[in-house]
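On clarity, I found the account of how folds are encoded harder to follow than it need be. An entry of this sort, consisting of the sequence and the corresponding backbone structure tokens, reads as follows:
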Amino acid sequence: MKGIMYDLKVWKVILKKANLAPKYLMIRYREDWPVPKIKHPRQIKVKTRIAGICTSDIHQINVNLPYSASILARKENPFPMGHELVGEVVEVGNQAGDFSIGDRVVHSPLAACESYGFALCPSCRNGNHETCYALVGRGDGTDLENQYGGRGGFGGFSGGGFSEYFVGFSKQFTKVPSSLADDVAVLSEPFAVSLHAVARNRPRDSDKVLVIGGGIIGLMTVAALRALDSKCRIITIAKYDFQAKAAKRLGSDDVISERSHDRFYETVAEITDGVLFRPRMGKRILYGDSGPDVVFDAVGIDSTLDDALHLVRSNGRIVIIGMGFGKTKATDWALQLYKQLSITGSMMHGVEMIDGNRIDTMELALRTLEETPDLFENLLTHKYRIEDFKAAFRCCQQKAKANAIKVAFDFS
């Protein structure tokens, strides 16, 4: 079968870090990969229909994620890539639950305790599947662990959408409503990521919320705020006009695309009634209890985190969703103390309490996409065949040139 696998070898990482390696050293494209087989009764096999490219996939290829991220690497090597996908069930294990051949499904890369059949770990008992022990190879201490390779021999984020077929645990899949088109359903995973972040950090209706980033996670954060019925004022930082238009359509009240750093800060202050002060040295700082109440950083690089710290009001909150940074070099962390800020991270998706009911954000994402599909149409801007992977990845990294929002591999 055609597909892309990630080949995680230490010598390759060293060459990439030293800028001595070819661009795609970390991945292997082949047209003769063996079709995967169901190994455990709780699994299903899926034929990929469409698979979105996540920015984290690009970070993996370029090896610019922090080393700490490797705690969540798959144990087998090379391992399949691609976690944003719509697929069709082609085989079902005998303990795989309510799935039938032909079902369309979306996928979560989180194989938590329940996926394996383990007794729930502390994270899973609290609905925090994104920090489950099983992701780092720890089960419940029973013989069941041995079926999966023993303690430390399983786990990691899973995927496979960059291949024609892949296998996963049934608990990782959610059925797609029949009325929902593949091109919209493929947005469910990034939408679930943003819903998770917003649900755990819901602003008040009177709040002014700054969303940094006009990529898919930033846009989905705007959509998540509105999907959870927030009446807050949303200000989105978007580099490009096509991102600005999408942010407006999804519910942003204001969009800032200023290239001048000083003017960018001034515009945020004007919109949010904040006051900028200039220290003896360095950038201006929005200080005091006025300005953006909550900042969602949907980029997550050194410069955007530094901007978030400078722009959020004193005693405000920063929520980091973007995964673009590792160790920071230029971020002024003293501002966290001077401004008494709450800073929290948000990873993947989970089970949330919304309107008195517990719901997985993947289910909520699909429900919202089904109810308002027109709102999300045309966010998938580019589709490529898997054999044209270099052009697809290049498109992701040249968004301005291509007017790209979401890029995907089309297996139809």
Notes: Residues 1 and 32 are 5 Å apart (CA to CA). Residues 3-111+156-187+379-410 form a domain with the Quinone Oxidoreductase; Chain A, domain 1 fold (CATH 3.90.180.10). The chain has a mean pLDDT of 93.
